[in-house]
Each structure stands twice: as C-alpha cells, then as structure tokens.
Design goal:
single chain, alpha/beta, Urease, subunit C, domain 1, TIM Barrel, 2 domains, seven-stranded mixed beta sheet, 13 helices, binds 5-methylcytosine, binds fe (ii) ion
Length: 411
C-alpha cells in the first residue's frame, strides 16, 4: 500500500509513504500532487501522523456513570465513593464488554497506544484479570499498557501492598500509586517508596496519580521525583495530574522545578477531568485546578494530555476524542499563542509516546510499524481550529477505520 499526497509534520511539501509487510518501507518527497493509483490511499494534502496516544484512561471504570448513583458534588472524593459502590458489582464479562466498547471509541479517533489504570484495590482482582484478556483481544486495534492502580490506597487499604505485588505478578506493566489519598502524609511517602522499590525490582514503568487535589500542602511530587532521580529511573516514571502544583506558591515551585528537571520524569495532565473535578472547594475566585502545563513544557520537561474518564463516576461525558481534550487543554492552560498552536499535536502524540516509553515502535520513520492516522486538516493549527477528525487509521499496514467526510447541502 502507498499513501500519496501526505503532509508530514516538520516537513515541507507532499510525500508518498510506501508500506510493505506492515512496515514503513520508504518515505519519498513528491514534486507535486499525484493522481493516486488503484491501490493507493490518497491523503488529499492532509496531515498524516503517527497514531494519537492516550497516556491516561481508566477503561475498567468507563461507561459506569450513574450506576448505582451519580456523583452529585463533582469531587474526586465522591467519585471514589461512587466507584466503590460500582466496584462491588463488577464482573469479568461486564468489565470486558465496557472496555471493548470504549476501545472502539478510541479507535474511531485515531488512538492506537493506550495506558489504562486498573483499580487493584479489590481482593478478587476481577477487573485486572478481565483487562489482561482485553489487552490481548484488542491487539489488532491498540497497544495497551496496564497500570496496577491502587484506587483506595496502598497503605490505607487492607492488604494494599500484597494486592499491588500480586497485580504485578499477574502481568500489569506499570506500577501506580495515589499518595494524596492515603490517610496520612507518612503513608503517602511510604507508599511511594514501596511502589518505586517494586518497579525497580521488577524493571517496570511507574505512573502515579500524584497530588490530584487543590491542597497546596499536597507535596508528594517532590518525593516521587527524588525517588526517580536518586534511582536513575526518571525516564520510566510519569506523574499524572499533579494539579496541586496549580496551587503551589511560586517560591516553592521554583525550587521544585530544579528537582523535577534533574529527575527527568514525565508529566500527564487531564484537562477536561481536572477542570471538572478541581476547584470544587472554592467559591470565587475559583482555581482552574490544573498543573502548570505551559511552565513544565517551557522548562523543557515532557508533558502530555490524556482523557482520564469516559462516562464514569468522576466525569459524566467523553467519547474517545482526544483532540477535544487537546482543545480544552490549550484553552485552560493559556496555550493559545501562535507557537503553541503550531505544535499542539505534540501533546497528544510524541509527548505521550515518550511518557509511555514507546521508543522506536512509534513515529513515522523507515523500518517502523506502519501505524498511521490521516486527519482532515493540513497542519496542527487547522486541526485545532477546525476540530479535525481522524479520517483513516492504519495499523501494521491495514486500514482499521475509515471515516467519510462530512457532507453539507445548500439550497
Ligand atoms: N481515580 C482517581 O483517583 N482520579 C481520577 N481522576 C479518576 C479515577 C478518573
Ligand atoms: Fe486517573
């Protein structure tokens, strides 16, 4: 298969991508637009990118909003309570059905790499067992990384440490945590030491829900970053949310940034989720409740966007469209300057791939898997402005999704 008339990011002109045996075999600069041959895919002078990357979602909780009760306060903490009610009812089949349905939504929006946090604070580990099967069954659509995520705590949940260790033995890829939810600061700190020890021993990645609260005293990020720095594990560690940073004073934050840069850790922000869940204890002025996305990026650190939820106890909306999350993120984080708009796709492609440590399995280059998405716009700026959609998603050289252009009629 050849893709002709492709616009590539960071490259001038049009290109032909030649795909053989599921691999990108050649990338050729065209002199001018060409007429496609029969077996060619015509990108029609639109952007062809590597797939969108979803670095942070909870597939085990997706599509459960309102079951059995809705989150009426809109807080993270009521979300965790509502989920505990639903968690008592989950079954293997119910988890698989919802996860597959949600993966279908991600596919429809050009996502092929996904990191999902799976709640392991459940003595049966039913959701994890189900998600390990889903990972295998969904292989033709997405690559799935599974985080062992202790939703109700490692230290403050009964047998929390044992459940984490068991989840890793069962095959979870990434070690998670939730230090700001542990009962005490000490427990938060010891939970981070425990999870970093576990990851180091097993050679695994780390992704911690870290400081997901407007409380400016929630300072577990410094603990995580120092653990990562001193063990030389920074590249393998992600700090998700870190929204308390939006409430830290500048004097502390400037000191913190020195450590963060030295640590080399990655950051994941979830703008729709955080603008919804945070600021809930404020009247006015009301905080935005996001981490310092622009500042982290400007400091040369890696930060990406994720959607976190799709219709779950924490967030009632969502449909898999990561470009919508990008749109909201650029607005809420004050990143609408021309330079940011011109490179906005970084936050849902390359930066996510880096956080997930996808390495040379990701990107448009000769010899890499032919995982490609055609958008219906010509550059990052227009993608954002026009609410572009994925027109085609290609995985290992096969078309897995094709969307017809919108059709309007006028009198
Ligand atoms: N669990 C959590 O602790 N935080 C979230 N944002 C979600 C689940 C969605
Ligand atoms: Fe999350």
């Amino acid at each position: 298969m050849n893709i002709v008339n492709a616009v590539l990011r960071h490259q001038n002109g049009l290109h032909t991508l030649r795909i053989k045996d599921g691999i990108i075999a050649a990338i050729e600069r065209q002199e001018a637009p060409v007429v496609p041959e029969n077996s060619d895919v015509d990108a029609e002078c639109n952007l062809v990118i590597p797939p969108l990357v979803e670095p942070h979602i909870h597939l085990d909780a997706a599509l459960t909003a309102g079951e059995p009760e809705w989150n009426m306060s809109g807080t993270l903490f009521e979300g965790i309570e509502r989920w505990a009610q639903r968690k008592a009812l989950i079954t293997h089949d119910d988890t698989k059905r919802r996860a597959h349905e949600t993966i279908g939504m991600l596919r429809d929006h050009g996502i092929q790499h996904v990191r999902t946090h799976v709640d392991v604070t459940d003595p049966s580990l039913a959701a994890l067992k189900a998600m390990l099967e889903v990972k295998d069954e969904a292989r033709d659509l997405i690559d799935l990384q599974i985080v062992a995520f202790p939703q109700e705590g490692i230290e403050s949940f009964q047998d929390g440490r044992k459940l984490m260790a068991r989840a890793i033995d069962m095959g979870a890829d990434v070690v998670g945590g939730i230090p700001h939810f542990e009962y005490t600061r000490d427990q938060g700190v010891s939970s981070i030491k425990f999870l970093m020890d576990l990851a180091e021993r097993k050679g695994l990645l780390v992704d911690v829900h870290c400081d997901e609260t407007d409380d400016p005293q929630s300072r577990f990020l410094e603990v995580l970053a120092e653990e990562a720095r001193s063990r030389g594990m920074g590249k393998h560690v992600s700090a998700s949310h870190t929204v308390a940073m939006g409430s830290y004073d500048n004097a502390y934050c400037s000191k913190l940034f020195r450590l963060l840069k030295h640590s080399g850790i990655n950051f994941v922000a979830c703008p729709t989720e955080s603008i919804h869940l945070q600021g809930r204890f404020d009247t006015y002025p009301k905080r935005r409740g996001l981490t310092r996305v622009a500042e982290i990026d400007r400091a040369g650190m890696n930060i990406c966007f994720g959607q976190d939820s799709i219709k779950d106890p924490w967030y009632p909306l969502g449909n898999g469209n990561l470009l919508h999350i990008l749109d909201v993120g650029m607005h809420v984080c004050h990143m609408m300057g021309y330079e940011d708009l011109q490179r906005s796709l970084d936050f849902v492609t390359d930066n996510g791939a880096k956080a997930m440590n996808l390495g040379d399995r990701y990107g448009i280059a000769i010899g890499r898997p032919a995982n490609l998405v055609i958008l219906d716009a010509e550059n990052d700026y227009e993608v954002l402005r026009c609410h572009a959609k994925a027109r085609m998603s290609i995985r290992n050289g096969s078309i897995i999704m094709r969307r017809s252009p919108e059709h309007l009629e006028y009198n």
